[in-house]
Design brief:
Distance between the termini: 21 Å
Shape: globular
Order of helices and strands: HEEEEEEHEEEEEEEE
Helix content: under 10%
Largest sheet: 14 strands, antiparallel
Structural class: mainly beta
Radius of gyration: 17 Å
Low-confidence stretches: 1-19, 222-232
Length: 232
């Protein structure tokens, strides 16, 4: 499997060269570009060397690449990297209840309780749930289903670090979550309200496919912390 450090190096070099279009690493195929609210754009791609069902994404903001991630067929948060901090967060295989996209589709609710570990040795405990609301919407021709979610992230000693709640969207076609509106808080007491809902889905051959410049809400000062499970 290609490492995130190799991927990040190539993507950052492209950004520094002023390239306006994302090119995935060798052996990978870019499938869709999604322009979001909140001044972000996501590139979603698959790689031949990855296990079946894995998907990767690269997220760009007004200042370029800021987040990389990999999920599996159940949308489990396999690996993610923050470009600002350099931290790589990986899923711990043992879990009380791993996130399950199929369980959400089958029952309308998925309760999860799992751990991740960063490359500097920090262990984080994630607990929460996703619930299908029953509402289906169409965004740029794509049928999506709305969810509500709640997520609490704690340190290894049980201190609450981050809480998040709000709504997201799922796509059965693409077998993944997309952002929505949410509120959150962290251990410093800082409060956030964000909206990174998808606006445009761009496919090969369409204008804007692969574009790394976000198009929506970039006149607003927003801080986004993307996560593959709510996740993110």
């Amino acid at each position: 499997m290609l490492t995130f450090l190799v991927l990040a190096g190539g993507m950052l070099a492209a950004g520094q060269a002023g390239a306006a279009s994302f090119t995935p690493p060798a052996g990978c195929t870019l499938n869709v570009t999604v322009q979001n609210r909140g001044c972000s754009v996501g590139q979603y791609y698959t790689c031949e060397a990855d296990p079946e069902g894995h998907q990767r994404s690269a997220h760009f903001g007004r200042d370029g690449l800021y987040h990389l991630s990999t999920i599996d067929a159940e949308t489990r948060w396999i690996e993610s990297q923050s470009m600002a901090s350099g931290l790589i967060d990986r899923l711990v295989e043992e879990a009380e209840s791993h996130a399950s996209f199929s369980r959400l589709l089958e029952t309308g609710r998925d309760d999860f309780d799992f751990w991740t570990e960063t490359n500097d040795g920090q262990r984080l405990h994630h607990q929460g749930h996703d619930v299908l609301t029953g509402e289906t919407v169409e965004i740029d021709g794509q049928p999506l289903e709305r969810t509500t979610f709640q997520l609490t992230t704690r340190s290894a000693d049980g201190e609450v670090l981050i809480t998040r709640e709000g709504s997201q969207y799922i796509s059965r076609r693409f077998n993944r979550f997309y952002g929505g509106t949410e509120t959150g808080s962290d251990w410093t007491g800082a409060q956030t309200q964000t909206d990174d809902s998808p606006v445009q889905f761009l496919f090969p051959g369409q204008p804007g496919f692969g574009a790394t410049t976000p198009q929506f809400d970039c006149d607003q000062l927003l801080t986004q912390i993307p996560q593959e499970r709510a996740a993110s």
